[in-house]
């Protein structure tokens, strides 16, 4: 990538087209489809995050949304009984499981969390297996959230 950028810089004042993909009808249609899929995934993610917020509202627990420290941000942070839990909402964890795990590690360490829960709509064996090898990171379904939180804070 850097080599390609250097080659363009070597051209001097040559301007790159703003959107070469959209100049061709076939490319434009492909790009539009890609963007539509992205927007669909984004809408699904936002809807799931809202479901998690609604579930939290039904539990007697205080939480904060979108807590950040520098560039590290978590969907929800719960602080109670001297413990901190981060909740990461993943509407489609299969899309990038490794990224979800690395994000959870960073959130755990940077935000000083005792536990990070990766909350998903449905049980996912790959997530559960991967989290079994992680320290203080656990995957759970939205249905299991209330029970897991009450058990965690009861300890």
Task: Report on this structure.
The longest helix is centred in the first third of the chain and has 33 residues, at 25-57. The chain is built from 5 helices and 5 strands, in the order ααβββαβαβα. By secondary structure, the protein is an alpha/beta fold. The mean pLDDT is 87. A hairpin with a 2-residue loop joins strand 1 and strand 2 (72-80). A 5-stranded mixed sheet has the order 1-2-3-4-5, sandwiched between helices. Helices cover 48% and strands 22% of the residues.
Rg on CA atoms, Å: 20 Å
Q: Shape, please?
A: elongated
Give the SSE string.
HHEEEHEHEH
| Biggest sheet architecture | 5 strands, mixed
How much helix, percentage-wise, in residues? 40-55%
Q: How many strands appear in the DSSP assignment?
A: 5
Strand content: 15-25%
Rounded to the nearest angstrom, the distance between the terminal CA atoms is 50 Å
State the secondary-structure class: alpha/beta
User: Order of strands across the widest beta sheet?
Assistant: 1-2-3-4-5
Unreliable segments of 5+ consecutive residues? none
- Average pLDDT across residues? 87
Individual helix count: 5
């Amino acid at each position: 990538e850097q080599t390609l950028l250097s080659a363009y810089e070597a051209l001097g004042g040559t301007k790159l087209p703003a959107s070469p993909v959209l100049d061709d009808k076939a490319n434009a249609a492909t790009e539009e489809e890609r963007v539509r899929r992205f927007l669909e995934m984004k809408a699904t993610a936002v809807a799931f995050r809202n479901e998690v917020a609604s579930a939290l509202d039904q539990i007697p627990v205080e939480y904060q949304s979108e807590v950040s420290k520098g560039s590290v941000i978590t969907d929800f942070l719960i602080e109670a009984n001297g413990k901190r839990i981060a909740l990461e909402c993943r509407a489609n964890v299969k899309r990038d499981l490794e990224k979800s795990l690395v994000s959870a590690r960073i959130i755990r360490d940077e935000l000083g969390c005792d536990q990070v829960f990766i909350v998903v709509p449905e049980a996912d064996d790959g997530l559960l297996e991967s989290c079994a090898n992680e320290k203080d990171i656990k995957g759970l379904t939205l249905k299991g959230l209330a029970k897991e939180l009450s058990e965690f804070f009861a300890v």
